[in-house]
Write a structure and sequence with these properties.
231 residues; alpha/beta; Rossmann fold; 2 domains; six-stranded mixed sheet; four-stranded antiparallel sheet; 10 helices; 10 strands
């Protein structure tokens, strides 16, 4: 579904991603873990086209999308839940979902279906973005991405700033999305959450993948966790 092949990405003269490769399969949840500053958000930005790699390739269903504009990548079925949610303060919940809608590819995410998934958003339908709690904003960011009917959902630190109860609810929602056939790439610092929802995990350090395994294997690997995650 998605393949990142040996990408090298810079911010100006800062060399961030240094030959990174990973894969996301159909209906799979993959988590990318690592400490602050290792390049996780840069990976997301490289895939969606905000900061294209200088070298390497990004393939979507075999098509090279490395140097496409972000809106072209979105049209090909890549959705984004950005770090910090990026909710518009002046727009209501309903308006956010309306502007995000895109004809589906069989996934069938509609305005009403998103409200069924997030009943709290139905209660807040007319509330503006700046009147929502952090948890409600995260639901809205997810819903806004889903109504675009993406084949692949990129999620940058989705549990950041959420209370433990809401993190558990987010895990339940991701489980439902996976059951529905969604392919999801999650960048996370919350190890417990990531290991609970992912099928496969990658660890990043200094712009490179330094370890990959099944979640249960990483859970048992105390040396790797201590070295790269500090736990």
């Amino acid at each position: 579904m998605l393949e990142v092949q040996d990408i090298h990405t810079n911010y100006g003269e800062s060399y961030i991603l240094q030959g990174l490769s990973l894969r996301l399969g159909q209906g799979q949840v993959v988590a990318v873990l690592g400490r602050n500053g290792v390049g996780k958000t840069t990976l997301i930005r490289s895939i969606i086209g905000f900061t294209p790699p200088r070298r390497g390739r990004i393939l979507l269903r075999g098509e090279d999308i490395t140097h496409l504009a972000p809106h072209e990548i979105a049209r090909r079925g890549v959705g984004l839940v950005p770090q910090g949610r990026r909710i518009f303060a002046s727009l209501g919940v309903g308006e956010h979902l309306e502007i995000g809608q895109r004809a589906g590819n069989g996934a069938g995410w509609s305005f009403d279906r998103v409200l069924e998934l997030f009943p709290r958003l139905r209660e807040r339908l007319r509330n503006r973005g700046n009147k929502l709690s952090g948890g409600e904003q995260q639901m809205l960011a997810c819903g806004r991405a889903l109504v675009g009917n993406p084949d692949i959902l990129l999620m940058d630190e989705p549990s950041e700033g959420l209370a433990p109860l809401l993190v558990r609810e987010l895990g339940r929602i991701l489980g439902r999305l996976k059951t529905g056939g969604a392919s999801i790439l999650i960048v996370e610092q919350n190890l417990a959450f990531a290991l609970r929802v992912a099928d496969h995990v990658y660890l990043m350090s200094k712009g490179k993948i330094v370890h990959e395994s099944r979640p249960d294997e990483l859970l048992r690997n105390e040396e790797v966790k201590a070295r790269y995650l500090g736990v």
